[in-house]
Amino acid sequence: SQSTALSHLNIVVTAGPTQEELDPVRYITNHSSGKMGFAIAKAAVSLGAKVTLISGPVNLETPYNVNRHNVRTAIDMHQAALEYAQHADIFIACAAVADYRAKVVADQKMKKHDDSNELVLTLVKNPDIVADVANMQHNRPFVVGFAAETHNVEAYALKKLTTKHLDMICANDVSSKQQGFNTDDNALTLYWKSGKLPLPLTNKNQLGLQLVTEIIKHYNEYTNE
Ligand code: C5P
Prior knowledge:
alpha/beta, binds cytidine-5'-monophosphate, lyase, Coenzyme A biosynthesis bifunctional protein CoaBC, EC 4.1.1.36, EC 6.3.2.5
C-alpha cells in the first residue's frame, strides 16, 4: 500500500510566520496563517510519512500524528530546521520567515518620545533557512521552497530556485484575495530545473495532497539518479 511505501520517509515542514521582537511587548510579523504548511504536513502523514512540523505562532491544531515543534523567531526556526534537517529525506519550507529582525531588542518597553515624530528602527537580515538547508554538506535532504509573490511570479520563483539551490519551488501568487495568505484555498505552480506543473485553485488540504504526491515523485527520481 501507499502508506508502507512511504513509511520510511522523514519529512520536515516549516510553516507560519515568525515573530521578530522589538521589545518585551512588541514584534514584527506578517499575514501568514500557517494553513498551507499544516495542510502539507497532514497530507504527508496521510501518505504514510513521518512528519515534523516546525511552526511559527499560529492558531491551528496539530494534525494527527504530526510531531510539532513550535518556534517564534527566525533565529529559533533556523536552529530547529538545521537540526531536524539532518534526519530528513525531504525538507519543505512553507514558512513566511521575516527577512529582517531588529538589530537591538530593547529589554524594556520602548517609550514614546515627545521631541520627535519619527522613530528609526535598524533591522538586520535573518538567516535564510531554506538556503542553509539546501547548502548542507552532509545528509542534505531534497529541498522544496515556496515563493509568495505579488508580481513577476514565475521569474522570481525561478530565480529563488537557482540562487537558493532548491530542488523544487512552489510559486504562490498572493496578489489575489481568493488565494494565498490566510485563506482556505490556494493555487500553486511547481517548478523544478527542467519543468513545471500548475496546481489550480482548490482548498489547501486537497492542494497539499497533490503537492506532496508530486514532491515524492521527484524525490524518488532524484534518489534514483
Ligand atoms: O522570503 P523568500 O520569498 O525568499 O522565501 C522563499 C522561500 O525561502 C520560502 O520557502 C521560505 O520559507 C524560505 N525562507 C527561509 N528563510 C528565510 C526567508 C525565506 O527559509 N529567512
